[in-house]
Every structure is written in C-alpha cells, then in structure tokens.
Specification:
One of its GO terms (biological process) is photorespiration. The chain has 372 residues and is of the alpha/beta class. Helix 2 packs across helix 3 and helix 9 packs across helix 12. The longest helix has 19 residues. The structure holds glyoxylic acid (GLV).
Length: 372
C-alpha cells in the first residue's frame, strides 16, 4: 500500500493518476495469476518508462562518479532521461547515430573528451554541461563554431581545491607524508629524529591563474602569513597583489608557485625548465590545475637534479600514469587528481548541473556558462 501511495503521489505530481490506474488494471488483466505487488511493479516500470520517454534526453558517454555519489535519479529528477552510451552494446558511433535526433544535451566529466568527431554525429546538440571546472576535454572552438553552449562546475569546488592546494604545500614544506612513512617503517626508533621541514609563514607565493581557485588559495595563504603575487592572462584591476606579466619573472620573485590556471594551447607546458630554474633550488611547485601545464619531463629532471626543492602534485600529464622517478622522492607529495572532490560539494554540483540543464531546456541563460 505504501508503494502504491508513493506511486500514485509520483504519478499525481505528473498528472498521470488516470493513466496509473488504467495501467495497473491493464497489467492485472494481462497477468491474472500475478500478485498485486508484482502487478503494481510492472505498472510502475511500464509507466515510468513511458513517462521518461517524454523527458528531454541528456547523453552521457562515460560513467560520471558524482552521479553515483548523489544518485542519478536525483539529478535526472523526473525531468530528463539520461541516455547512457556506455551501457549500450552498440559501437559508439552507431549508438550516437541511432539516438542523434533526440540528443540535445550532453552531460560529461573531466575524463570524457567531447571531440569534434563526436559532436559531428550529434547535429541537434545545443549544450555541453560538464561536472568539471576545467574544460580542456571539450573541443571549445568546435562548440563555439556550432553555437553549442558550454557550462562547467563554476565555483562549486573552489574552496575544496584551494584547501587541497594548501594541504599539499604544507605537506611538502613540513614533510608530513614523508615523516609519516618514516614512523610507519619503524625508522624513528632505529635512525632517530627526522629532518625538520620549512616554515610556511613568510613564504612568497606566486599564484599562476588568479581565478576563483587562485583567489581562494591566495586568501588562505595570506592568513598563514605568506605574501602573494600572481600571473594571469591580464592584470586584475581590483587586485592589490603584485602582478607579473611573465611567469618566469613571477617564479624568480617567489619561493612557491601554485598552478591554478586552465589548460589551454597558451598554457600547455608554460611551466618549463626555464621557469623552474627561475624558481630556484629552494623553490616548491604545487599543481592542482592540469598536468600538462607543466612540462613534466623537465620538472622531473629538475627534481632529480635538485634544481627545485620539492613538489605537491595532484595532476599529471598522462593520468593515471605518474613518472616513476617521483615515487622514490620524499620531497614530492602525490595525489590522484582528487583535489576537486568532496561529497559535500557534490550536492551543490547537483543543483548546478540540474539548474544548467533546466535552464537550457527552458531557453533561459545557463547558470555557469563558460566564457560569460
Ligand atoms: O579537475 C577537476 C576539474 O576541473 O573539475
């Protein structure tokens, strides 16, 4: 009865009470030997399916971890049908060609490239909504050319990422993970004290990319007594932190570089040997942006040769592959591209994703349109 009431309420919300009752009778007639519960279940699934067919279709190419966290049905929320290409036995191009007339929106995450080839198979697509802040996986020029709108995760994760960046920096400077390993291996008792780390307060921090995340990192590190300067595409008119037009100059005037910018054609390998040499032997680099912003080979070389003091890295050029040289270095802290995530922020992300999709399907401005 409870299930029945829930079902009636659900249907009622959608104005289908009549259909619901007809459907229950229909299933009952077709299957006179079935229990009332089974009849109800079949009616529910038939009608849910029918109702869902009328919802706008949103294509998902690969599983999205946040949907699993918050529960996919909450995001779809009886407003959209998720069309999951990865659950189909059809080859991708065939799946896309079959469904292309009804696909107007794509929901994607950081590890799912939305290429011109994929978009070419989807002539009706008008929006790409991503659960990531970075958009390097989306062919933005192609979207622009086609007039496809793009929405990202906006500032939903800025605080989480900034917390993590500060965590990585403190870990590198104060040797938290390294000394943890020392204790766990029983070396404290046999080898004695562990070498001391370096103080965070007073460090000169260079933020590369002073967007939402860069600002959040700067605010936190100011509170630790650090001084802040930055490099960005343009000087920010209302920001009092010193601005350096060249990242190399910024590095030469800092003890720490924190990479917070987007990966674009302009920023790919922007942090190279020259910049790292300018940062110097006492310098530390933290990367919570994208791996390919740093020339990884050159950074590894600098670490091996002691040309910089250490690194805190959440992102890598060829994830999930990490240069093996880094594993043996206790002046390097590694994490598997998790700076962005906390389950608490997923609820905000859910609201943003739903809000963007709803806005698109009702011809309203997106909540976090890229390029706005
Ligand atoms: O790295 C994660 C993101 O861009 O959201």
């Amino acid at each position: 009865m409870c299930v029945l009431l829930k079902y009636i309420t659900w249907q009622n919300r959608h104005g289908f009470v009549e259909e619901c009752l007809v459907s229950i009778k229909r299933e009952g007639k077709k299957n006179p030997l079935l229990s009332r519960a089974s009849v109800l279940k079949m009616a529910v699934s038939t009608d849910c399916h029918k109702a869902q067919q009328d919802f706008p279709k949103v294509l998902i190419l690969k599983p999205i971890s946040f949907l699993a966290h918050v529960g996919e049905r909450h995001v779809a929320s009886n407003k959209f049908t998720f069309l999951k290409a990865y659950e189909s036995s059809l080859p991708l191009h065939q799946f896309l060609s079959t469904h292309s007339p009804s696909i107007k929106a794509i929901l994607s995450s950081v590890g799912t490239p939305i290429t011109a080839d994929i978009l070419q198979l989807l002539p009706e697509v008008g929006v790409v909504v991503t659960t990531s802040v970075g958009l390097n996986q989306v062919d933005l020029p192609e979207c622009r050319r086609r007039g496809i709108k793009v929405a990202n995760a906006g500032s939903v994760f800025s605080d989480d990422v900034a917390d993590f960046a500060v965590g990585l920096l403190i870990d590198v400077l104060r040797k938290v993970s390294a000394s943890d390993g020392y204790v766990r291996k029983g070396l404290w008792a046999t080898k004695g004290d562990y070498p001391l780390g370096s103080k965070l307060g007073g460090k000169r921090i260079g933020i590369v990319g002073l967007g939402n995340i860069g600002f959040a990192v700067a605010k936190r590190l100011e509170a630790f007594g650090c001084s802040i300067s930055y490099n960005s595409r343009k000087r920010k008119p209302h920001v009092s932190y010193p601005f350096y037009e060249s990242v190399c100059e910024l590095a030469a005037n800092c003890d720490v570089l924190v990479i917070c910018c987007e990966l674009t054609d302009q920023t790919r390998h922007m942090i190279n040997k020259e910049v790292l040499s300018a940062l110097g032997k006492e310098g530390v680099i933290v990367n919570i942006g994208r791996g390919a912003i740093i020339n990884e080979k050159e950074m590894v070389q600098c670490l091996v040769q002691g040309e910089i003091a250490g690194a805190g890295l959440d992102v890598f050029e060829n994830e999930p592959d990490v240069p093996v040289e880094l594993f043996a270095m206790d002046n390097v802290v590694l994490s598997p591209h998790i700076a962005v995530f906390t389950p608490e922020s997923f609820l905000d992300l859910m609201d943003l994703v739903m809000g963007n999709l709803e806005a698109f399907f009702s011809n309203k401005p997106l909540l976090s349109e890229y390029g706005d």
